[in-house]
Amino acid sequence: MRGIYLTGTDTEVGKTIVTRAIVRAAVRRGIDVVALKPVESGAPEVDGELVPEDAVALIEAARSQEGIGDICRYRFPDPVSPHLAAERVGRAIEPGPILELLAGHARRHELVIAEGAGGLLVPLSDTLLYGDLIAESGFALVIVAPNVLGTINATLQTVEAARRRNIEVLGVVLNQTPPTELGNADAIATHGAVPILGELPTADIGDTDALADAAERTLNLDPLLG
Ligand SMILES: Nc1ncnc2c1ncn2[C@@H]1O[C@H](COP(=O)(O)OP(=O)(O)O)[C@@H](O)[C@H]1O
Ligand SMILES: [Mg+2]
Predict the structure, then answer these.
(1) Where are the domains of the chain?
(2) For ligand 1, what atom is nearest to the CA of residue 10?
(3) Single pTM value for the model
(4) 173: which of 4, 49, 84, 140 is 20 to 30 A away, CA to CA?
(5) How far apart are CA 192 and CA 177, in angstroms?
């Protein structure tokens, strides 16, 4: 099974924004791409239904016809770690259904891109971390990191956590590059021996095509879409 998982150094670092940008760029290259958010917590209830907002945004980015349940297998209302969000509604996240979801899409589509939740060491249950699931999926990893002070440390820790699970790291996207140079890209490339795919600027997040334009301008997408 082949696909790409996007993880972050943390939550709220731009995983969804970067995923939308890459997915729309793939659509524009004529690739049959599907974008998944297999586990989403913090999904607000609207008219009696939980709405996983990342999953909805990814469906839009991929111009997908899939139903929400085929994009997001586990959705929970509370905005806490998935293991706890599941526990609070009396459920448990199992790896099997997520791996089946990924495999099913991999059979039907040219490219599967999935967004994780938080980072690699986020628990899905008392016995499973998100990184363990990604390792089992065989998907390759893209790490999204905010281009701020502290990101060298957080990114290199994420690279180490991936490597000790034998997850292939395709590269790092530095997100929301500030005007001041922090040396993040050079230090991460040197010490992590990992490609820097580029630095995505602050963009109009309401416009997926504007995000894709920014990605095409600033990121090397060939290792992902080439
Ligand atoms: N490149 C960007 N340009 C503009 N705003 C951004 C960008 N990246 C992230 N943001 C802001 O940060 C918020 C969190 O990003 P998001 O992609 O939802 O993070 P994550 O998926 O990692 O939790 C977004 O809602 C947006 O306000
Ligand atoms: Mg997200």
Answers:
(1) 3-225
(2) 22
(3) 0.98
(4) 84
(5) 19
